[in-house]
Each structure stands twice: as C-alpha cells, then as structure tokens.
Amino acid sequence: MAACLVLGYILTLGLVPLGRAMLARWGHLRPNYAGRPVPTSMGIPLVASATIASGAVMALLPDPDASWALAGPCLIVVNAAMLAGVVDDLFGSSESRGITGHATALFKKGIVTTGLLKAGVILVSAAIAIRTAAPALPAPALALDALVVALAANLSNLLDLRPGRAAKAYLVGATALAVATGLRAPALVPVGLAGAILAEIRDDLAERGMLGDAGSNPLGAALGYWLALTTPVAARVAALLALCLVHVYAERHSITAAIERNPFLRFLDALGRR
Prior knowledge:
mainly alpha; two-stranded antiparallel sheet; 12 helices; 2 strands; 2% strand; globular
C-alpha cells in the first residue's frame, strides 16, 4: 500500500503541471468561486496517476489475480466517473442544479442534462464494479452498494465549491476507512488517489487549477467503493441513510454556509488556502 501511495504521489507531481498547461492551452478554463478563470478538470492527472500506480503495484504483488479481483473493479467506476465528469465540465450548464434541478429538466422540459447523464454513468459503473468484485452478492445488496458509491461521488462534487475542500474531505474519509477497515485489497486504488491528492492539493489550495467534476466525482466514488467492499451491511445502510440526509439538506440549504457557521469546520476549510 505504501508503494501505491508513493507512486501515486510521484506520478502526480509530474502530471499535474503538464495537465494544467495542456488544459489552459486548450482553453478549458472555468471561473472559480472568486470569479477568476482557472484550468478545470484537474482530476484527469489524478485519476491517471492512481490508475498507473495501482496497476503497477497489483502487477508486482505475489498474487496479482487475487488483488485484481477486489482492487481492479474500483478502476472501472473511478475512470468512468472521471470521464463522465469531463463531459459535465465541458458541456454542463449551471441552470440545472441538484437532484431537483436535473429531474425538473428531464420531466418538465424533456432535457437529459450532462449532470443526469453523469449520475447514470456512475451508478451503472458502480453496479458493474461491485458485481465484478462480488459476483455472489444478492441483488438488494448490490443496489445498496451501487447507491452508496454513486451518492458518495455526488457528495464529493457538492463539497467541491472551495479550493481544497473536496481533497481534504477525501483524505479525512480515507484515513477514517483505513483505521476502521484496514488497508485490504479494495483500498489499493483509493490509496493511490490519496497519494495523488497529496501531490495536487497545493495547486488546488493556491487556485492554480480546479479538480472539476472530473476530479471530485472519482474521489467520492473511490471512497464509496472502499466502504462497500469492506464494511458490514449495517454500516452500508447507515452510510446510505447519512448520504441521503446530506443530499436532502443540500437541496434546500447551502453546505458552504453550514461549514461557515461551524468554527472547527470553517478552520479546516480555510486551512492552507491563501
């Protein structure tokens, strides 16, 4: 696991400047929260680094097939979330926000938004990944796990409204899961992403680039996969309920405002930001 963390970190150190320069050259810029245009979709080099790092480590393990059976499927949903996020970063509109906004666009206007398309891609790829890792899993448990992964991916996206916020949340979540469940095979890709985040977070905090949906969604999906593969059913049900409650809250209230009202969360949110 340490090798995956370090390799993810090293690869990202090289890929982030390259990715930032290429995205800027292609004009893939978006205004950040302060209104300043910066390169977005910086999740692309993160996911690329984690994919290479985890693939290399799996190939070098004593039993690569066993590792691939549990760790490999995570790459399916992480890369699918990244690609769907790129599409949303490129073509998404701010007119339809939240679950209600996308549902309204579909049922009242007949419009399939890129956000709704992204959600569908993540949900389906999560189901494929979980089924691949656990072929004997009953259908209700499969649905539970796929929803946990998809909602975790969207929660990460909801948090990504300030520099470093989604990255910090990911590191906190990954640390909590490592303590609670240990660093077993399903953690391999998330650990590679943690190394990538540690290398990229300085750029994020300095407002030199934004993760975009291409970065925030894969982070949440990776944590959701890790949780789904390593915790008992009761914990996954509790996680699903918690995720649903947060999403219901976010439909009516501002998560940023809630963070600002809490001194501890406000301190963590501002930590490292210029």
